[in-house]
Amino acid sequence: MRKMIRRILFVDDDTIQHMINKKNLLKLNPELELFFFENPNNALNWLEENDADLLILDVNMPEMRGWDFLDLLKSRGRTIEVKMLTSSMDPEDIQMSMDYEMVSGFLVKPLKNEIMAEILGIEN
């Protein structure tokens, strides 16, 4: 049986997407706890003392690539289910994801409500 998702951490440099995702996700489930970071280093620091059920991680950010973020998580002994967030499905990224057990899939920006409902296990 799939673990219930209650806490979602977003790491993405696009603040407009944060606002849209927050609004849409809380419509699907108002009890979700959502955490948003534009800066991946701040997100890593947050994860030192906090947990989330799902990490939605942008592949390409100015400060560091999503893959570097995953390497840092791994080096700190942290495991979390990760969905990589991308604006285009690059076959190289899909290939790289196979090196990370934590990565359970890819999401394309902008996130569609049907996809988020599916991830949350909600009949839409």
From TrEMBL:
Keyword terms, alphabetized: Phosphoprotein
Highest taxon in the source lineage: Bacteria
Keyword DNA-binding: no
Stored Pfam families: Response_reg (PF00072)
Response regulatory domain boundaries: 7-124
GO BP terms: phosphorelay signal transduction system
Residue numbers bearing the 4-aspartylphosphate modification: D58
PANTHER family on file: RESPONSE REGULATORY DOMAIN-CONTAINING PROTEIN, STRESS RESPONSE REGULATOR PROTEIN 1
Name of the featured protein: Response regulator
Species assigned in the record: Arthrospiribacter ruber
